[in-house]
Amino acid sequence: MEEFENDNEELEEGVLYEHFKFTVDVGQSSLRIDKFLSNRMENASRSRLQAAADAGNILVDGKSVRSNYKVKPNQEIVIVMDYPRRELKIIAEDIPLNIVYEDDDLMVINKPPGLVVHPGHGNYSGTLVNALAWYFKDLPLFNSQDPRPGLVHRIDKDTSGLMVVAKTEQAKNKLALQFFEKTTERRYQALVWGSVKEDEGTVTGNVGRSLKNRQVFTVFPDGDYGKHAVTHYKVLRRIGYVTLVECRLETGRTHQIRVHMKHINHTLFNDSNYGGDQILRGTTFSKYKQFVQNCFTILPRQALHAKTLGFTHPTTGEKMLFNSELPEDMATAIEKWENYIATRNE
Question: Is 224 assigned a catalytic role?
Fold first, then answer.
């Protein structure tokens, strides 16, 4: 019997694609792979399959094939495709973008905190997608019904930092495959509660929606629920009751860093979803409490910034690596913590 797996991903810290995996039945006769797939997948037109094949996103036993490849029994087929178009017109809005790099195929932007990546419930305008629709409106390949023009991954509304955006369908498909195959480099900086004991470490644990509160995610260490997630962390600075850490994503699950750091008892500073907007470390002195509240006011979001982004250019094959400075709110809060601890020690 033919085996089929659909691992659709739509993750705030991950990629935006559909991932399918098939094992060809032992009785399957020789058949073009595009016809084989179109017979087994919804919304898989021959044009979508052709685009996926052209981008190298149809793999047979780990090797990319063309759309006219003939399938054989027992082969494993993996395909990564952009989501199908929806009957949703995106309103183009002239929202400024902080573009740190751009060429004919892609651009890298530095997203400010507070900017929602794409429209959803309660956020139908003022998003990054609305801004991209305006910026891309004169491109020949722009489709106003594409709900995610150029997007191959996203980050939380209140997380700042680097994102890559594709300007062509081929670039979009090839970048999506890199995120799926985990060949991109993504490093974040986070300010967390408490003094992290180990200089370096790894958090491994399935991440999925909480069974008690569907608005948040949690770690399922036994792997009985959620999806496999791995976060590597390294201490950059210990600042008294908080620590500045670098987190490297091996996977890209929703809220992954926020959930993993809470799991090891180092919740992100001022992360309201996970209790970081409470005083989790420190003293009972009123002066200290007021200081923390002042820091919350300066940094009114979780202290998380996507600082480094690396990938292979979809056309030239060149290795691309980008770094960004910490945004003002996060940098100021860290400076205040350093001054507070220095004064306290004196």
Answer: no
